[in-house]
Amino acid sequence: QVQLVESGGGLVQAGGSLRLSCAASGRTFSNYAMGWFRQAPGKEREFVAAINWSGDITKYADSVKGRFTISRDNTKNTVYLQMNSLKPEDTAVYYCAAGQLFGQTRYEYLYWGQGTQVTVSA
Question: Which DSSP string corresponds to 50-89?
């Protein structure tokens, strides 16, 4: 089992920045690929970004490419999502997830956090 706890969400104006953190405990963090997903009201949970176990390969959804950066610190068992140039359409609950497949679908991730709300005002 891997336990995941997100933090860093909040209310920000359009054009602003936030950094989300996801702290992991339980099994060896560095064995897992990590992903960030988000879910807006009335919408499906969608892929945002993923990072492989060593942190040297990343993937992004087209909608966030160039604005968001995923990173990880295996010494701290933490994954981050730096979000810049935020837009109102980025408003959602953001979830981190851990899996053994470096994928872009939610079905490829085994463990999930409870989520953190990000709200971007116009």
Answer: EE-TTSS-EEE-TTTTTTEEEEEETTTTEEEEEE-S--GG
Looking at residue 85, its pLDDT comes to: 98
Is residue 100 a contact partner of residue 32, using CB atoms and an 8 Å limit?
A: yes
CA angle 84, 88, 91 (to 5 degrees): 85
Measured CA angle at 21 (ends 53, 121), to 5 deg: 130
User: 39-45 long-range contacts, Cβ below 8 Å, gap at least 24?
Assistant: 39/92, 39/93, 39/95, 39/115, 40/91, 40/92, 40/93, 43/92, 45/95, 45/106
Task: Tell me: pLDDT of 98 over 90.
Answer: yes
Query: Residue 28 and residue 16: Cα distance in Å, rounded?
Result: 34
Question: What are the Cα distances from residue 93, in Å, to 12, 55, 65, 84?
Answer: 14, 24, 19, 17
